[in-house]
Description:
Layout: H1 2-16, E1 21-24, E2 30-34, E3 39-45, E4 51-58, E5 70-75, H2 80-100, H3 135-156
Amino acid sequence: MYVQLRETADELARVLWREHTVYRERGGGVVIRGEHVRRWISLAPTGGKDRALLRAGRILDGGTTAPARSEIVVDLTSGTAELATICRRLLTDVAAGADAAPGPSRAGRPKEKAGRPGKQAKPGRRPRRSRHTSPGSWFVLLCVAAVLGAWLYSLFGRAGY
């Protein structure tokens, strides 16, 4: 399957971009990187014969890749032109998502913690309380201390008998 993915990726890369890099990823798939357009495409096996998962995403500042923004399962037996059309559509979705993101890139910045300004709670979830140790945790700690105390008393409490 890897050979078929590699051949398909090489053909797609030549059709899509003049400058590209094709390499194998850990999961057995193939990645096509277009540094000049700051986008990547990945072809990964799906377990089905002649089918692959086609994903597309952005390349962030510093050369790291952002998670896939678009993905679709494609038939590898279809022609290179049809696969290139699908890739272009996914890349357009990725570019539209990148342009719609307000403000500067968040790459390299630490995530804000819950409760801080600028962080919105996810819908359907209770806001996080600032308490670090819940009553249930205190109960467990109290039980552990009681068991430890009983064990120490059984060892050293009756030393005079």
